[in-house]
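Hi P.,

Sorry for the delay on this. The queue was packed all week, but I finally got your sequence through. Input first:
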Amino acid sequence: MQTRNTKHVTILLQGGLLSPDKMQAINQLAQQYDLTYYCSTAQNLRLLGATEENIDEIKKALTALDLQVKAPGMFPLPKVCVGKPFCNLGLTDTFALSDKITARYGSRADVKPKFKIAVAGCPASCSGALLADIGIISTRIGYDLYVGGKGGPLPRVGVRVARGLSEEEVVDAVGRIADFHAANTPKKQRMFKLLDKPDFPFPLKN
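Then the structure:
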């Protein structure tokens, strides 16, 4: 298990999805290096128990498996619920929307920490979209867009800034908000602290 003297490697999983063949290969690697799995709340897979001596070998082996290893400055993968057609309440394909967001913005570098995105396939918001910096919730009239949510010891519900957006509009909106966050965040900052700035790209009453 992870201790203060060991390290960890986080494998980024688009939509929290992992194929059986990749899972088998990761399991072999975990056994080889005596690692423990942790399924993170961000829908990624963290391998605990690496050491200073083997962590680079582990990362190299994961990269050879065509797996993406988390590193500072990467654009966040959206956290999603299973959505349509896997959930009876799902109104949209959350995996497809997550893929479109990542395809457009995933190559961005130097993204500041404390920036999270969540996509929900219906207003039940099982992915916690109301507690993300950018929350996207599917409704029967389109996508509702929320900003400024967060968890932690002092949680905040996001503020709705747009209603009934099309898929293309909501993907564009993610970029506008990400640009705003980058321009106003020297090191790291949760979105809710930036909402009062006069140049915030969306009105706060919708």
